[in-house]
Design a protein that fits this description.
The protein contains eight helices and eight strands, in the order βαβαβαβαββαβαβαα. The protein starts with a strand and ends with a helix. It is 37% helix and 20% strand.
Length: 219
């Protein structure tokens, strides 16, 4: 059974506390925090994501899964370390080379947090292979990052398969997270490809029964 990381990106402020509570009751495994700086992607979500992270830290025991879609990775790592997340993931496209990525990973780990590396739909998956031994998770974007509610890009399923094959053949012990446009109609193909953590936002928070939807996605 896979784990579910519920994105709060499409949750309105006036509903967020109730939504956090209902998602915890519904047994989400993580809260997925989509941090955007308006530079790496067009949208800017940092202020609201900080606010939501603060709420979660104060009222919930569900761990934070922080996804940085930002240019200045170190700046935002420092911001979100304050909320004691389980993991902080940043994009390979946001760093100049592997050495910079490794230094960021080491910095995150030194602050008692797991580190993940993310890859966009149009980036060759092999670009992160050399980093996999340093991270706890690889995140494959199944939509173009920047906004919620997009449809899953089907060729990214093959990217997940390639990653799964690589980590199996090279005995790399990491999680594979898939993020973007995943719902109860397409989740099986994502799981079959090798992802063991599923990010889903709109499919869960727009449903009438969070627990039922989360359970369906898991099973």
């Amino acid at each position: 059974m896979v784990e579910i990381s519920t994105s709060l990106l499409t949750v309105q402020k006036d509903n967020v506390v109730k939504t956090i509570y209902n998602l915890e009751v519904g047994k989400t495994n993580y809260f997925h925090i989509d941090v955007m700086d308006g530079k790496f992607v067009e949208s800017f979500t940092n202020e609201v994501m900080e606010e939501y992270s603060g709420y979660i830290k104060s009222i919930s025991n569900i761990p934070l899964d922080v996804h940085l879609m930002v240019e200045d990775v170190k700046k935002y790592v420092d911001i979100y370390l304050n909320y004691e997340p389980n993991i902080i993931t940043f994009h390979i496209e946001a760093v100049k080379d592997e050495n910079e990525a490794i230094e960021l990973i080491k910095y995150i780990n030194a602050n008692n947090c797991k580190a993940g590396i993310a890859v966009n739909p149009d980036t060759d998956i092999s670009k992160i292979y050399n980093l996999l031994k340093y991270v706890h998770m690889a995140l494959v974007m199944t939509v173009v990052p920047g906004k919620g509610g997009q449809a899953l890009i089907m060729p990214t399923i093959d990217k997940i398969k390639q990653l799964k094959q690589y980590i199996t053949e090279n005995e790399v012990d990491i999680d594979i997270e898939a993020d973007g446009g995943i719902n109860i109609n397409n989740v099986q193909s994502v799981k079959d490809a090798g992802a063991n953590i599923i990010v889903s936002g709109n499919a869960i928070v727009s449903s009438e029964n969070y627990a039922e939807t989360i359970n369906t996605l898991k099973a």
